[in-house]
Design brief:
The protein has three domains: 1-63, no CATH class; 121-319; 397-512, Alpha Horseshoe (Serine Threonine Protein Phosphatase 5, Tetratricopeptide repeat). Helix content is 58%, strand content 1%. It has helices at residues 27-31, 40-46, 57-60, 82-96, 121-135, 139-149, 159-168, 199-215, 219-232, 239-255, 269-273, 276-291, 294-303, 321-330, 334-361, 366-380, 384-397, 405-425, 430-446, 454-463, 469-479, 485-512; strands at residues 6-7, 20-21. It has a two-stranded antiparallel ribbon. The radius of gyration is 45 Å and the shape is elongated. Residues 1-53 have low confidence and may be disordered.
């Protein structure tokens, strides 16, 4: 690699030599070239012809330190592994490096980012308890203390301890027992569990939590986790403490500080079996509905996917709509009872629609479909008004419709004529007929190829005794929906006039007779 690497020019009075520099292991050295060959080349490296000692300083940083020549291996001797040779070479190079001087008594300073702060929740507890006791029953002073103390105390690190003390007045062990129950100096009575059991007082404490979380936004998730934990610990709390916690949870749910997902902790088997879950839920929903209306509460339950899990608040042998309705109605929560009935009805309708769709796609006889639907109506207490819409949807989904507008009307009439007897069975009430008319109107508006077929479908149903004259006239005058109103009313104008004239003629004939 370093063969004939450098040729210096020796000028009088300079330190640079005109002799070529050869290094150990180079071809020139092996050939005996350079300054006389053999061992003489080493002397040439050290001294120039002028007698001065010279080596180009600009090359020193580029060249590795010289290695002594190794004797050639004996014939037949084993060759050392390449890795060992490389390691020996690197060790030799390492030993030739200059070691940096180290002062005696030098201290290595740990970087601040590498220092680990001790976890001392008891110190945090003592400071917090002292501040709460000094603030006393003045919740405005408590809120100001918590606001100002956040700059000195690590709320992020000790969030569990912070919320334990604000709710229970003490640090809580796993399971909900108080760690400092024997030492009153490490507890405070200025907390939720020690407050009066009335809605206004608990609402004042809820405002303290709201202010704290608005000021320190990073506590939001920690507070949610804390409330889930406290709901799991309900068995360790007294009935009064459970009531206060339920009221606090309901108020905070109403203000949006907490999400409805915290209620999943109530579905724990131990709480359900002992009846704690249902009792706590009633108190919580009462406080929630005191803040928000029933629609807001049920909407939050839907968003959290809890609307279909309310029955799980009761043991398996009591998970029925009737038991839930009676329990919550007796507690003054009829709105939730009605909501659950509607949700269960929707679930039943979805199952019914799925089964109907399958039977229609298999072209089951209409008589069998009628028997099946009547049995489901009786078993699930479904009204005819709920079934007629499902039937229409399933019948229209059972066919792949033509994309051409001029052909789809003929295809629709042929298909609906086949299933008109099925629709006639479940449209025996005037309200059912109006719902069917509205469903037909919405379908024809949403599927543009059916826009011109609306009047033909209505006439077909009139002739097949699916729709009565009274229902059509009422729909035309007042019961139609907004979708495509002007188009469909214009289509039906002549037919409605014919119906009205026929009605007048029949009335006049009746008077003559």
């Amino acid at each position: 690699m370093f063969e004939n690497f450098f040729l210096g020019l020796h000028l009088p009075g300079s330190r640079y030599t005109t002799s070529p520099l050869y290094f150990p292991g180079s071809g020139a050295a092996r050939a005996g070239g350079g300054l006389g060959g053999g061992a003489a080349w080493e002397a040439g490296l050290r001294r120039a012809p002028c007698g001065c000692q010279c080596v180009c300083p600009s090359l020193l940083h580029c060249l590795p330190p010289p290695l002594p020549l190794l004797p050639p291996p004996l014939p037949g001797s084993p060759q050392p592994p390449a890795s060992r040779v490389a390691a020996t070479s690197s060790d030799r190079n390492f030993m030739n490096k200059h070691q940096k001087p180290v002062l005696t008594g030098q201290r290595f300073k740990t970087r601040k980012r590498d220092e680990k702060e001790k976890f001392e929740p008891t110190v945090f507890r003592d400071t917090l308890v002292q501040g709460l006791n000094e603030a006393g029953d003045d919740l405005e002073a408590v809120a100001k203390f918590l606001d100002s103390t956040g700059s000195r105390l690590d709320y992020r690190r000790y969030a569990d301890t912070l919320f334990d003390i604000l709710v229970a007045g003490s640090m809580l062990a796993p399971g909900g027992t108080r760690i400092d129950d024997g030492d009153k100096t490490k507890m405070t009575n200025h907390c939720v569990f020690s407050a009066n059991e009335d809605h206004e007082t608990i609402r004042s404490y809820a405002q303290v939590f709201n202010k704290l979380i608005r000021r320190y936004k990073y506590l939001e998730k920690a507070f949610e986790d804390e409330m889930k934990k406290l709901l799991l610990f309900l068995k360790a709390f007294s009935e009064t403490e459970q009531t206060k916690l339920a009221m606090l949870s309901g108020i905070l749910l109403g203000s949006g500080t907490l999400p409805a997902t915290i209620l999943t902790s109530l579905f724990t088997d131990s709480l359900v079996k002992e009846g704690i879950a249902a009792s706590f839920a009633v108190k919580l929903f009462k406080a929630w509905m005191a803040e928000k209306d029933a629609n807001s509460v049920t909407s939050s339950l839907r968003k959290a996917n809890l609307d279909k899990r309310l029955l799980e608040l009761f043991p398996v042998n009591r998970q029925s709509v009737d038991h839930f309705a009676k329990y919550f109605t007796d507690a003054g929560l009829k709105e939730l009872s009605d909501f659950l009935r509607v949700q269960q009805s929707l679930g039943t309708r979805k199952e019914l629609q799925k089964e109907l769709q399958e039977r229609l796609s298999q072209e089951c006889p209409i008589k069998e479909v009628v028997l099946y639907v009547k049995e489901e109506m009786k078993r699930n207490d479904l009204p005819e008004t709920a079934v007629i819409g499902l039937l229409w949807t399933c019948i229209m989904n059972a066919v792949e419709w033509n994309k051409k507008e001029e052909l789809v009307a003929e295809q629709a009439l042929k298909h609906l004529k086949q299933y008109a007897p099925l629709l006639a069975v479940f449209s025996s009430q005037g309200q059912s007929e109006l719902i069917l008319l509205q469903k037909v109107q919405e379908y024809c508006y949403d599927n543009i190829h059916f826009m011109k077929a609306f009047q033909k479908i209505v006439v077909l149903f009139y002739k097949a005794d699916v729709l009565s004259e009274e229902a059509i006239l009422k729909w035309y005058k007042e019961a139609h929906v907004a979708k495509g109103k002007s188009v469909f009313l214009d289509q039906m104008k002549k037919f409605v006039e014919w119906l009205q004239n026929a009605e007048e003629e029949s009335e006049s004939e009746g008077e003559e007779n």
